[in-house]
Design goal:
The complex is a heterodimer. Chain A is an alpha+beta fold. Chain A contains 11 helices and 28 strands.
Chain lengths: 565, 183
């Protein structure tokens, strides 16, 4: 077949399926612009900038700590040399320390979209509660370690375990919480703070304006405190893109009742609502806690190198097709991926390159990181606040970077061993909306003396796609520090655990994601000098892992300024 | 005619019309972007930006040819700029990222079938200009003259890029065949 015909054939047979999430991302901003252009007929800010700035917890109503965090960011600005020793600041600290409960009403406007919600933080009864405009309610009772979520669409209350979640981020008072956040927000260059006395709603107030430069754009916080009580009355937030266009306009109004709501019904849930208990069973919780204790003991400072193998039939050899090196120091991580410069040439001359690499870890890593025939084509860096990605074209040797992703909570998975069973990062309890973990006693776990934890997701129909029901199984090895020895992920169309059997009725089959199964298994274990087990060889991904738990990091290795440009 | 009506409704602020345009053309636009850039994430950004720009200019937009052709040209232009800015080429999936997802929720992504992956891989081995000429001609069904006009280069240059690209693809495919048969 002629190349022209072959390309035509590939084009005609090419197909791409987008998830609902992808459609929402692509089309969402366009729809927003369409509406706005009809109403305002004014220039619009760049949509990607919008996403870059405000894809942050403070801009998400669903984040339970949004109010507190918003306040803390502002308060943090006052701990600088300008304010930290002023009498006004000291009085505010004292006033905030005595608050038993805070109630906040939040209004956030993004383009034409407006969100409203209420939040309660009761420091006396250890309760967090939220009420969204769409009727969704949450009630977290930390003294009883249980949480409730109400879905008005289904008229259903779900009870779930709190797990590792801590009241007000583990703080005992608003001020302690502020101090904790201040520690985290240690540096903010270029912040401008101004203060003036004024009147607000008939009260004498002090207004503090804080301008915080971000990676893209500027945030401006207007902080209004009562001059008599020294308590925060209101907080106004504005976000600007680099051209000065307002991207987000929000306001949080505070009051201070004696206590928060007593239960979720007091928030307005009808007594007739169906109650579903999704709490983790005690046996699963106990296993999880043991698992977690082992994970906490694992070193957090290490270098790991993963060599990825591939069986190439045409040359009759198993070759190393890529190498990944990950530096980890607590939450800081940097991952470097190396590949051959010319894959076909590499395969054709595999015996020569194999000989060059040698058989030792040191000789192989030296070849991959220093040889002219291989090169680093991807670096990912997490600096405790932003996630950076730079890629390189190995032929032209030119680097390019993607916009940094703000992710202070580190919601994506860790690089390196984080996703490879040591310590496993994708198993957690107490996440709202997550299905409960159950202990499964199946044939595989019995035969191999493993503990199997299972989590089942329901299939979901989105606007333009459908995600199949998903089952994940974690087989933990109690003889090896509860390491996850085998992980299975199954997406099934006709899953027996799918509650609504007619969930796919009327859904275009082309928009249903394909069934798939993915299994990975540790086939060889290693042990650190301190005795902790880790995955040494993993099947399914054909990876061999080399671990150094006493590393010397190159200087500035976690500094984004040192990334190639 | 349907596209003209959809554009007209779009001008009047119809969300349904915009959604319909997206549904109708997203597959072709994504395929072109993925084939040009060999990176689904960047391709998604390109298509996203094309739709946002389309909405921003729809008020003054006049459809003189096919809407699909117009949007494909926009994707090609945006992809070219992206490519220039980022020098993205032939960036495959990181082996460390391949395989199962470790996120807390089951993955929801853009899924390419085998043929599209092959297409993206084959194209990634060509210089960008040659990819562009081949894909605009074969997928966008644009004449060499139209491509030359949109790229502001001569027709002969477009033809040369097209021919050289196909020659190189021919040798790549031959190489693959030799490898498959062990000869």
């Amino acid at each position: 077949m002629k190349p022209e015909d072959r390309i035509r054939k590939l084009i005609s047979e090419s197909s791409v399926r987008t998830s609902g999430e992808a459609d929402k991302r692509i089309l969402g901003d366009a729809l927003e612009h369409l509406e706005r252009s009809q109403q305002e007929r004014s220039p619009d800010p760049p949509p990607n900038v919008f996403r870059a700035i405000f894809n942050r917890p403070t801009a998400k109503l669903a984040a339970a700590a949004v109010i507190i965090i918003a306040v803390l960011i502002v308060i943090h600005q006052f701990t600088g040399p300008v304010y930290v020793e002023t009498p006004a600041f000291a009085r505010m600290i004292e006033a905030m320390k005595k608050i038993p409960c805070a109630h906040a009403v939040l209004q956030m406007r993004r383009g034409d979209h407006e969100e409203r919600a209420q939040f309660w933080y009761s420091f006396t009864s250890k309760v967090e509660a939220s009420k969204e405009e769409n009727g969704k309610l949450t009630f977290y009772d930390y003294s009883r370690q249980v949480a409730y979520a109400y879905d008005p669409g289904a008229e259903q209350v779900t009870i779930f375990s709190l797990g590792e979640r801590k009241f007000a981020l583990g703080a005992g008072s608003p001020w302690e919480l502020m101090e904790k956040t201040v520690e985290q927000l240690s540096e903010n260059e270029g912040v401008q703070v101004t203060r003036k006395s004024d009147e607000y709603n008939g009260r004498n107030v002090e207004i503090h304006k804080v301008r915080v430069p971000r990676k893209v754009g500027i945030e401006e916080w207007l902080f209004v405190a009562d001059s008599d009580t020294h308590l925060i009355m209101t907080l106004k937030l504005r976000g600007y893109d680099p051209d000065g266009n307002v991207m987000v306009n929000g306001e949080i109004i505070f009051d201070y009742p004696d206590d928060g709501p007593a239960d979720i019904y007091e928030l307005g849930v009808p007594r007739s609502a169906v109650v579903i208990d999704d709490r983790t069973k005690p046996e699963a919780e106990e296993i999880f806690n043991t698992y977690k204790a082992y994970r906490q003991n694992a070193p957090s400072r290490y270098i790991v190198v993963q060599a990825h193998y591939n069986n190439i039939e045409r040359i009759g050899a198993v070759v190393i097709d890529a190498v990944t090196r990950v530096y980890t120091d607590g939450r800081l991580q940097r991952s470097e991926s190396y590949q051959p410069v010319d894959w076909l040439e590499y395969l054709d001359n595999w015996p020569k390159y194999s000989a060059q690499m040698g058989n030792t870890f040191d000789s192989q890593i030296k070849w991959w990181t220093q040889s002219e025939y291989s090169g680093c084509r991807l670096i990912m860096l997490y600096d405790n606040e932003y996630h950076y990605t730079v890629t390189r074209d190995l032929k032209t040797k030119r680097w390019s970077s993607k916009p940094p992703q703000h992710d202070p909570e580190r919601n994506y998975r860790a690089f390196g061993l984080g996703g490879w069973g040591w310590p496993l990062s994708n198993l957690s309890l107490g996440v709202p909306g997550e299905p409960p973990i159950t202990v499964l006693d199946n044939e595989y776990s019995k035969q191999n003396k493993l503990i199997c934890l299972q989590r089942l997701w329901q299939g979901k129909v989105h606007k333009d796609s459908a995600t199949l029901p998903c089952k994940r199984l974690w087989y933990l090895n109690p003889q090896r520090d509860y390491i996850c020895q085998r992980f299975e992920e199954h997406y099934l169309r006709n899953a027996p655990w799918q509650k609504d059997k007619s969930w796919l009725e009327g859904v275009d089959p082309d928009r249903v994601f394909v069934e798939k199964t993915w299994i990975r298994q540790v086939t060889e274990f290693g042990q650190t000098d301190a005795g902790q087990w880790y995955a040494k060889r993993i099947g399914g991904n054909n990876a061999v892992i080399f671990l150094d738990t006493d590393p010397e990091f190159p200087e500035g290795i976690f500094d984004p300024e040192n990334l190639p440009k | 005619m349907e596209d003209k009506l959809l554009v007209l409704r779009c001008k009047r602020g119809s969300r349904d019309a915009l959604g319909r345009i997206y549904e109708k053309h997203k597959k072709d636009l994504l395929i072109l972007a993925i084939a040009l850039l060999n990176d689904t994430s960047t391709a998604e950004d390109v298509v996203h930006d094309v739709f946002v720009t389309f909405v921003k200019t729809v008020e003054k937009f006049r459809l003189t040819g096919s809407l699909k052709g117009y949007l494909l040209t926009c994707v090609a232009n945006r992809a070219r700029n992206t490519n220039k800015a980022r020098h993205l080429q032939s960036v495959g999936l990181d082996p460390a990222e391949a395989g199962g997802s470790d996120s807390d929720e089951p993955a929801r992504l853009i899924i390419c079938n085998e043929q599209l992956q092959q297409l993206g891989h084959a194209m990634s081995q060509l210089p960008y200009e040659q990819r562009e000429a081949i894909l605009l001609h074969l997928q966008g069904t644009k004449t060499f003259r139209a491509i030359a006009k949109s790229l502001r280069i001569s027709v002969n240059t477009v033809k040369s890029r097209y021919r050289y690209g196909l020659d190189k693809l021919g040798s790549i495919f031959s190489e693959e065949r030799r490898n498959e048969t062990g000869r």
